[in-house]
Specification:
Shape: globular
CATH superfamily of one domain: P-loop containing nucleotide triphosphate hydrolases
EC number: 2.7.4.3
Strand content: 15-25%
Distance between the termini: 9 Å
Main location: cytoplasm
CATH architecture of one domain: 3-Layer(aba) Sandwich
Helix content: 40-55%
Bound molecules: BIS(adenosine)-5'-pentaphosphate, magnesium ion
Structural class: alpha/beta
GO molecular function, one term: AMP kinase activity
Order of helices and strands: EHEHHHHEHEHEEEHEH
Pathway: Purine metabolism; AMP biosynthesis via salvage pathway; AMP from ADP: step 1/1
GO cellular component, one term: cytoplasm
Strand order of the largest sheet: 2-3-1-4-8
CATH class of one domain: Alpha Beta
Length: 213
């Protein structure tokens, strides 16, 4: 199964992706996670990415297209399939992905678009906490870690500051529609209501994915 998950920043792409990976065994390819890993390793690519991410801007297409192509070419993808999260984010990236999939002889089975009311997203992002050891994502109010937890075991993303979130939302709203139109023309888009509780969203996501092919 080869899938894309789309949605505005904070829509719940990463949250649903973790559940999809567990249920369907596909490889999770999150460009945001790849950039954050490169940033923490302070590679040249990480330093470049940081200069865009800290401002809420998109990393240049040629960099992003390159890392996705490299990842999709690895052997495990042909075997277990993939779930792309946060890519493509511009129409040029969508065209580049079409080319890459053709070259690698892969086909896209479906796009899960998590539809959310943008007014809820600042609250979701400002309350997001991530476990330092496991990388698991939680929310202080909507999805708190079980039991008593030590706040020091969790961190907040640098780009979840309100001023950066505003820019991320503006950028993503502007870029998103042409990408959805592109995949709608191919009959691949499935909308899921993301304004529901996490587990209910996942029930809907599962129905969509199980109905593909
Ligand atoms: P990226 O990491 O992809 O960030 P994003 O798209 O802004 O999305 P987020 O990861 O913030 O949100 P999410 O939808 O995964 O939500 P989550 O599940 O965590 O990209 C970061 C940056 O990297 C970009 O700004 C850009 O600079 C760069 N970049 C990445 N890809 C790029 C590309 N292709 N091209 C160029 N640049 C690129 O949930 C959020 C919170 O809400 C959590 O706390 C969660 O617990 C909670 N939550 C989730 N679902 C629900 C629910 N249903 N109800 C209540 N709370 C919920
Ligand atoms: Mg994410």
């Amino acid at each position: 199964m080869n899938l894309l998950i789309m949605g505005l920043p904070g829509a719940g792409k990463g949250t649903q992706a973790a559940k999809i990976v567990e249920e369907f065994g596909v490889a999770h390819i999150s460009t945001g996670d790849m950039f954050r890993e490169a940033m923490s390793n302070q590679t040249d690519m990480g330093k470049l990415a940081k200069s865009y991410i800290d401002k809420g801007e998109l990393v240049p297409d040629e960099v992003t297209n390159g890392i996705v192509k490299e990842r999709l070419a690895k052997q495990d993808i042909a075997e277990k399939g993939f779930l792309l999260d946060g890519y493509p984010r511009t129409i040029e990236q969508a065209y580049a992905l079409d080319e890459t999939l053709k070259e690698l002889n892969l086909t896209l089975d479906g796009v899960v678009n998590i539809d959310v009311d943008p007014s809820s997203l600042v609250e979701r992002l400002s309350g997001r906490i991530i476990n330092r050891k496991t990388g698991e994502t939680f929310h202080k109010v909507f999805n708190p870690p079980v039991g008593d937890y030590d706040e020091n075991d969790f961190y907040q993303r640098e780009d979840d500051k309100p001023e950066t979130v505003k820019r991320r939302l503006d950028v993503n709203i502007a870029q998103g529609q042409p990408i959805l139109d592109h995949y709608s023309e191919k009959g691949l888009v499935n909308n899921v209501n993301g304004n529901q509780e996490i587990d209910i969203v996942f029930e809907d996501v599962k129905k969509v994915i199980s109905g593909l092919k």
